[in-house]
Amino acid sequence: MSLLFPAYLAGLLGLALPWLLHRFSDQQAPEQAFPSRRFLEATTPPVSRTRQLKYLGLLALRILSLLLLCFLFAQPWLNRQGADAVVSKHHVIAVDQSLSMRTAGRWPSAVARARDIVADLPAGDSLELLGFDNGIRRSDRRDEPASVQLQGLSDRQPGFLAADYGALMQGINRIATESDVPVKLWLITDVQQSALPSQLNALYAPQLDELQVESVLSEPQRNVHLQASALSSDGVNVQVNVQLLASESGAAEAEPSDDAVRHGTTVQLYSGDRLLAEQQVSLKPFELQSIVFDRLIMPATSNPVFTVALAEPDALADDDRVDVVVRTANPMPVTLLATDRSVSGNSSVFLTTALETDELARVDVILGSAERVPAEVQHLISARLLGEHVDLDILQFIDSGANALLFSGDPAVSPRSIDQLAIPSIRGREMGLSDDAHPLQLGKLDWSGTRFYDVPPLALSEGDRVLLQTSDRQAVLVERQTERGRLLLLNDRLDGVSSNLPLQPAFVALMQSIIGYFDASTALPDQIVAGERLALPARVQVLDPDEQPLLTLDASAHSGAIELDEPGLYKIVGVRGEHALQVVLDSREANISALSESALSAWQGRYNASDEALQPDSAVNGSSGSLRADADRSMTVAEAARLAGWRIILPLLLLAFIMESALANRRLNVRRDGS
Question: Distance between CA atoms of 409 and 382, rounded to whole angstroms?
Fold first, then answer.
């Protein structure tokens, strides 16, 4: 038997506690009132008194419960059979299918190593062949013979996602838990540094019996990862920014030394098949550099694209070329919906000025109902009567996934002049509390000087969230719950008379915060990393780089999410036009630097036969503990299978607690009735 957490055995010192409690828990004899001691003979009081423990069964149960509890935390491992017994095993061969395995020579080496392992497996042992990247990819053929599983592995190819050893080990731990026999993991990988999880304890799989890492690294390789972006501020001139990161296998990531060898790399810029510019760069290992191509003219096409490529080949060809969409400063379209009386001229000027500051938005004023709003517009502002019910045309607009800001307006009543206001309200009310937990973060705005003179009545409905209120707790800004889009109610006429809010600098910040909050719910990103899930609105279609649709008719009719696993330029087509989406490779996965030998030894050392190796606190960086004498040999646990001791201890502990409770309750009853 061995212990996983022997430090918890220190809790055995608490076994003295039940004995002390029973030692001093005997009852004193009750005193009885007696009318007179006159006729009683004097006796000599006893010099000593013998104390005896009572309720020995209860004491034994309490000591046993503490003993079992300490061993439960210490986690003993028990041998299920003798050392000489023949143990059947379940072998899991996990082959790395992440982006870095697309490096020249690694995938064929992994397939060949899997064939060698299968050929050497003992007769009678079971086998499962699976792949992994950011999770395990179990095959539908796992119940088939080994030859069929090997054929399935040969038909696969590495993908474009990043590897995660933590997710792998947790998945293997679930497989080992479901297995009736000990499980041995054969990990065929390029032992990439970036695949380590942020929490190193995620590498520990307590149900796994053995671990053997088979590295496919041979000679050192070099890779340069490429990232680029293009921006045009005026729609004519374009600037392309390029970032380069060099890495090498066979060495852990570190700061480049002064004497490190620099390698020349040529970066080329294309428009279609035409070479526009190129620049020579020298890079050290693990060095990041940025270069800029400017004085470029925007191509005369829709969604103009530049291509950035490396002239010299390196280990990983998939990240040597990237297509870049030119992004332009594009003000957000916003519709100000008005009738001939609902929006005053002042309100229109104040709103337009605030929203078009810094070219954040482009405001178009239209007359009529929300049905006249163009299909490409996602944000609407309108003056309405703010009550429990919202006009039907506004609700239909929001139900399409769009957003609306309604401010107070009464078509039947013109705004009152300041001379008509009551004298007590001429001083106005200051801004009061704000909901700082809301994404708008309104508490960060400067509300000093803002005064409200005539706050219209606002009837709140169930579920309304008050974001701003005056000093006398009258609602100023409210968010109302909706099923799809977002709806905000601004309880001010924005005429400069009911309040001075439109005249304050905080008004510009408020309106831009609101539009930014609206856009976060409807805007599509320009770039995502391969493997990330993309949230999509309803009534859109996604086209892959080959212009093939990815969504069925039923899926495109509803909002949802899609995971894009391959890099390239995708198109999202909907009622609001066409949006270009760039799916890029994970820069961490393109860094092909490998784990150090000490780190790899410490990871495998968690699965050897000694108690120290079973400690999940063993450092993966290999700074302490016993390392392998031969770094090329994999360390395994003892051949005998183990059984987690908690499976035996926990039922016994529960039974002891139940019996202890029953006996303790009986003791209380005895003391209560005096027997």
Answer: 9
**Of 406, 436, 396, the residue nearest 337 (C-alpha):** 406
Where, residue-wise, is CATH 3.40.50.410 in the chain?
A: 90-217+597-636
Residue 398 has pLDDT above 60, yes or no: yes
The DSSP 8-state label assigned to residue 250 in this structure reads T
Whether the pLDDT of residue 422 is over 50: the answer is no
Share of the chain above pLDDT 90, in %: 28
SS3 call for 464: coil
User: Which regions of the chain carry the CATH code 2.60.40.10?
Assistant: 227-329
Say how far apart CA 14 and CA 24 lie, in whole Å: 17
Tens of pLDDT, residue by residue over 283-298, are 888 888 899 998 888 8
C-alpha–C-alpha distance, residues 306 and 303, integer Å: 10
Please list the residue range(s) of the chain that carry CATH number 3.40.50.880. 332-522
Instruction: Supply the CATH classification number for the domain 90-217+597-636.
Output: 3.40.50.410
Residue 490 and residue 476: Cα distance in Å, rounded? 6
Exposure string over 436-469, b if 16+ CB within 10 A, otherwise e: eeeebebeebebeebbbbbbeebeeeeebebbbb
Which is higher by pLDDT, 16 or 610?
A: 16
Burial environment of residue 31 by CB neighbours within 10 A (0 to 12, 13 to 18, 19 or more):
exposed
Is 10's pLDDT higher than 80? Answer: yes
Class for the domain spanning 227-329? mainly beta
* Contact (Cβ atoms closer than 8 angstroms) between residue 552 and residue 607: no
- Single pTM value for the model: 0.62
Q: Percentage of residues in the chain with pLDDT exceeding 70? A: 82
Please answer whether residues 445 and 472 qualify as being in contact, where contact means their C-beta atoms are separated by less than 8 angstroms. no
**Cα separation values, 460 from 299, 406, 442, Å:** 53, 14, 20
Tokens of 550: 């990815």
**In this structure, what token pair is assigned to residue 55?**
């309720």
Which residues, in sequence order, are bridge partners of residue 443? none
Please give the pLDDT value at position 123. 85
Strands of the sheet containing 222-232, edge to edge, are 274-283, 263-271, 305-310, 321-328, 222-232, 237-248, 288-297
Topology classification of domain 332-522: Rossmann fold (3.40.50)
Q: How far apart are CA 601 and CA 101, in angstroms?
A: 22
How far are the Cα atoms of 89, 120, 141, 240 from residue 123, in angstroms, in the given order? 10, 9, 20, 60
How far lies 540's CA from each of 333, 375, 417, 474, 560, in Å? Answer: 19, 13, 49, 41, 10
H/E element, 22: helix 16-23
